[in-house]
Structure formats: structure tokens, C-alpha cells
């Protein structure tokens, strides 16, 4: 409230009211020159709740001032305080105005953070400004996320972003903390190297040296495709799309995979489907034998053959027998079952020629002579003849003294007898020689004589007499003990003795002859047959 006092007596009343009967200490200051100012302070020794504090200013005339000046009414303000009451009075003679204010407060004192006392809503109060201990600004207990790096924390950025420089657990980001951070491909929070994420926080990948369970079968962390683990992290395979293991090219060659095709890589002939490797590359095969060696399960049929490899001769088609007598045989001549053209003195034996080349199947019933006869070298010759009843073919095969073509063999082997050191003779038992008859359904009973001499070979002819028995490839028979006066012949280009008159000129085929079969004197037995080279 504000109270206006009009004279000095009122001043005293104001003082009494302020004291309110309590013991008090009063301090007054007066200034009497010019403008007078009086200050009065009253202090109550015993705290009184609700006791006002009065501040007043009274302006009165003082000595030296003009009398009759207006005097302002004092104003008093009363407010609740606790414990101490102070009254200030200021008197100014010039203005004659007095003011008084009184302030009072009731209830418990407000807690002060930082006074070292835990009060009110404070969680702690350690009385210091250190935000790195257990009690931080605001008298709050230190915690991760408060923005202050407290005990046990490596960082605290006060946010909930878990992929920045400080994780939500107040630790700096690190591989293995389970949080995907910049620079990490993954982070599964474990040290297992066989799952999708390595302990280095790199995604599992082939070549990292760890076998990814369920995905990889091996991982040797190298780029060597020839060892037990490829760069696909799997064992070498013939279908993995890379050259691996012992392969000579992608998924072919080597001991495990199928042979390679033409122009693919090779280190040896068996790497190639063609059976021929030239300069590290599969080329057209040089022979049926080479194909058989490269492909043990190769079927009978037509194959491309290049007899001279990189030479000037072009590749050509050859029928290869891959299944009988070890396989790898090339068809050179086919003999019709009757009325054939390949008699002993036929020029086809010694000249470069082909007959019915397009009809290259061994089952065709016409005569045929093929390029294999002319240009394909080999070390073995085989003659096969058809049985008239079973129609099956029986064969006789022999090794040659040197690798040669059949054209060179029949051209360069002198025609004649063993007596004259001519012809080429194969050594075998008499029982085996007789097989030249049995494979074509014949026997010694079909011979024109009881033989005491038998021989098997190439270009055999009786050059010791004018008898007419001879054979290009097969068996000769004589009732004598040597090749003089031969009587019968079985095989290919076979002829028997015609008459004792010696009326067949040299170089002329005898009337009793067969291109393929048995000439037993006047009894001529024709059959179908083949000559093969390997």
C-alpha cells in the first residue's frame, strides 16, 4: 500500500507501523543543508513472516529552504519477505515527497542447482561446472545422449543418429559393432568368417580366402585355375565355363573332359576331337586312328581327315570303322559282291584314282575306291570279306613293315614269288592262313588241289612258271612245296591257274579270277569285301 504523510507527526506514525512492535534497530541519516534528506533503516532482529519492508521518501522544508513549499505525500509499498525487514526513508526538504516500499515472501526457498545439495527435482548436485563427471549441467545424472562425454563414454554427440561419427551407445563407429557405417559393406557384429559378412566388415566374396557356407565349396584366395579350387570357388569342372584343372581349353581336353573341337587349344592329340593337335590347336584329324585314340567311344561313320596336316592337300571325308578290331580303320576300297572291276591287273591298284567316291558307306554294293587309298598313310592293312550265308564280315589284318599309303604299297612292292625275293609276305600259322577261306564261307575242300604250300602277302605271283595263280592281297595255294606252279588264290585280285598251255600273256588277267573271293581252279567264288588302312 502507499500512505501519504502530511507532517512530521505522520513520519513517526510510519516508523511505528513499520516496527509493528518488534524489537528493531533504526538508522537515520539527515542532511540539513540545502535540500534535506533523512534515511531511516529499521531491522528486525527476529525474522517475521509477512513483515513488510517499507521504503519511504519524504520531502520537507529544511533550513535554508523556502517555507510553505508543497510537501509530497509519502508512498509505502508492502511485499512479503522472510527473515529481515528493512525500512529506508529518504527525506528531501526541497520536494517534500516521501516513498515507502515493503516486500515480503512466504513458503520454502527455491532449490539452487550447483549449491552442492540435491533438492527438489534435481537428480544430482555436485556443486561444480564439470560436465565430464557423473553429474552434468542441469543437475542431471550423466547419460549417453546428453551431449557430454561422461565416464565410460568415448563420444557423445547428443543425437539419435546411429551411422554418424558417434554411435548411439556413445562409442565411435567400428567394424563389428553391428552398425553399418560409412566405408563398411556390412556389419553383422560377429567374427564368423563363413557367413555373408566377414569380420573385416567386407561382404563375403569368392577369393577372400574363406569358404562361404552354402555358397562356395572352396576358396583358396588365388587366381590359379589349374589347382583344386578355381576362381569360381568350386572344384574344376568340364561345365564351369572356364579353362580349369587339366583342360587344354575351356571345358574340353585334358584327362577329365571331352576332347576339344577344331581350332580349340590342345597340348597333345588326345585333347582333340579330331585326334590331331598342331601348334597347340586342334586341327582336322590325320587319321581314323587318331580320332579313335582321342575319342575311344567314337562311333563308326564319316569323318573329316587331313592326311598331310598343314600340307597342301585339302581335308576329305573318310568312313572310319571305330568298333571292330580295335577301331580306327579307314575304308580304302570297297568290292562289289559280283562283277567287280578290281582284278589283279586293274590300273586302280597302282594309279591315283577314285571310284564312286560319293558312295562312301561300306554297306554299299557297288565298287568304290576312295582318297584314303591314295593319300592316307598307315602302318596296318586289313582285308574283310562277307560270308555268303550269314552276310557277316570276317577280317584279316597285318602290320606293315613301314608306314605307307596303300597306293605306294601296291605300286612299290615288286610282284613275284618268295623264291625271287619279290612280293611282301606275312608270317602266320597255317591254321590262321586258312581263315582267308573260312571268313568267306569256304574251306580247303573247295580248293582245286590238296595244298602243300600256302603263303599270305601282298603282290604274290608265280614268276617261276607260266601258271596263272596270283593275288594282290591274300592267300595262295600249291600242291607243290614252294611257290612254283601255283594253283589257287583267295583274297583280293585273286586268280587261279588256267591251262598248262601257258597261253595267258604276262600282265593279262587269267579267265579264272575274282576281284574279291576265292579262285579254286575253275571254281570261282565271288563275295563282297573291303580293304582298310590304319
UniProtKB/TrEMBL annotation:
Top-level taxon of origin: Bacteria
Q: Which UniProt keywords apply?
A: Disulfide bond, Repeat, Signal
Domain called Fibrinogen C-terminal: residue spans: 279-345
SUPFAM superfamilies per the record?
Answer: Fibrinogen C-terminal domain-like (SSF56496)
Q: Which Gene3D superfamilies match?
A: 2.60.120.1000
Keyword Nucleotide-binding applies: no
Q: What spans are recorded as compositionally biased (Low complexity)?
A: 25-66, 74-111
Annotated region (Disordered) at: 25-127
Q: What is this protein called?
A: DUF4215 domain-containing protein
Record organism: Nannocystis pusilla
Amino acid at each position: 500500500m502507499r500512505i501519504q504523510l502530511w507532517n512530521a507527526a505522520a513520519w513517526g506514525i510510519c516508523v511505528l507501523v513499520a516496527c509493528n512492535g518488534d524489537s528493531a534497530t533504526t538508522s537515520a541519516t539527515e542532511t540539513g543543508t540545502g535540500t534535506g534528506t533523512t534515511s531511516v533503516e529499521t531491522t528486525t532482529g527476529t525474522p517475521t513472516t509477512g513483515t513488510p519492508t517499507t521504503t519511504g521518501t519524504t520531502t520537507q522544508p529544511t533550513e535554508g529552504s523556502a517555507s510553505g513549499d508543497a510537501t509530497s505525500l509519502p508512498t509505502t509499498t508492502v511485499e512479503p519477505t522472510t527473515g529481515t525487514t528493512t525500512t529506508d526513508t529518504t527525506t528531501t526538504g526541497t520536494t517534500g515527497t516521501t516513498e515507502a516500499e515493503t516486500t515480503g515472501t512466504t513458503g520454502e526457498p527455491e532449490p539452487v542447482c550447483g549449491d552442492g545439495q540435491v533438492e527438489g527435482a534435481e537428480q544430482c548436485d555436485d556443486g561444480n561446472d564439470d560436465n565430464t563427471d557423473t553429474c552434468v549441467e542441469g543437475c542431471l545424472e550423466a547419460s549417453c545422449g546428453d551431449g557430454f562425454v561422461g565416464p565410460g563414454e568415448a563420444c557423445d554427440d547428443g543425437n539419435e543418429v546411429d551411422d554418424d561419427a558417434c554411435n548411439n551407445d556413445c562409442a565411435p563407429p567400428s567394424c563389428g559393432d553391428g552398425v553399418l557405417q560409412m566405408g563398411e559393406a556390412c556389419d553383422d557384429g560377429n567374427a564368423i568368417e563363413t557367413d555373408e559378412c566377414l569380420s573385416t566388415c567386407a561382404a563375403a566374396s569368392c577369393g577372400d580366402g574363406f569358404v562361404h557356407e552354402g555358397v562356395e565349396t572352396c576358396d583358396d584366395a588365388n587366381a590359379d585355375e589349374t589347382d583344386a579350387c578355381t576362381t569360381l570357388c568350386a572344384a574344376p569342372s568340364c561345365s564351369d565355363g572356364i579353362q580349369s584343372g587339366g583342360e587344354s581349353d575351356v571345358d574340353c581336353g585334358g584327362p577329365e573332359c571331352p576332347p576339344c573341337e577344331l581350332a580349340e587349344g590342345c597340348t597333345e592329340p588326345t585333347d582333340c576331337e579330331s585326334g590331331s593337335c598342331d601348334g597347340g590347336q586342334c586341327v582336322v584329324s590325320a587319321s581314323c586312328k587318331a580320332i579313335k585314340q582321342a575319342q575311344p567311344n567314337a562311333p563308326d561313320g564319316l569323318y573329316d581327315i587331313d592326311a598331310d596336316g598343314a600340307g597342301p592337300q585339302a581335308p576329305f571325308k573318310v568312313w572310319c570303322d571305330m568298333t571292330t578290331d580295335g577301331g580306327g580303320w579307314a575304308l580304302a576300297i570297297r568290292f562289289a559282291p559280283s562283277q567287280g572291276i578290281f582284278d589283279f591287273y586293274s590300273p586302280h591298284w597302282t594309279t591315283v584314282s577314285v571310284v564312286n567316291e560319293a558312295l562312301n558307306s561300306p554297306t554299299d554294293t557297288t565298287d568304290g575306291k576312295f582318297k584314303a587309298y591314295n593319300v592316307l598313310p598307315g602302318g596296318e592293312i586289313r582285308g574283310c570279306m562277307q560270308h555268303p550265308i550269314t552276310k557277316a564280315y570276317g577280317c584279316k589284318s597285318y602290320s606293315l613293315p613301314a608306314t605307307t599309303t596303300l597306293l605306294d604299297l601296291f605300286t612299290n612292292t615288286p610282284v613275284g614269288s618268295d623264291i625271287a625275293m619279290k612280293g611282301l609276305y606275312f608270317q602266320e600259322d597255317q591254321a590262321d592262313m586258312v581263315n582267308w577261306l573260312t571268313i568267306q564261307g569256304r574251306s580247303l575242300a573247295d580248293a582245286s588241289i590238296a595244298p602243300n604250300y600256302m603263303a599270305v602277302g601282298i603282290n604274290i605271283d608265280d614268276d617261276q612258271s607260266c601258271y596263272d595263280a596270283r593275288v594282290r592281297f591274300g592267300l595262295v595255294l600249291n600242291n607243290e612245296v614252294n611257290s612254283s606252279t601255283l594253283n589257287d588264290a583267295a583274297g583280293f585280285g585273286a586268280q587261279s591257274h588256267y591251262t598248262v598251255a601257258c597261253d595267258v600273256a604276262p600282265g593279262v588277267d587269267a579267265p579264272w579270277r575274282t576281284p574279291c573271293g576265292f579262285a579254286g581252279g575253275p571254281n570261282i567264288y565271288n563275295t563282297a569285301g573291303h580293304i582298310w588302312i590304319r
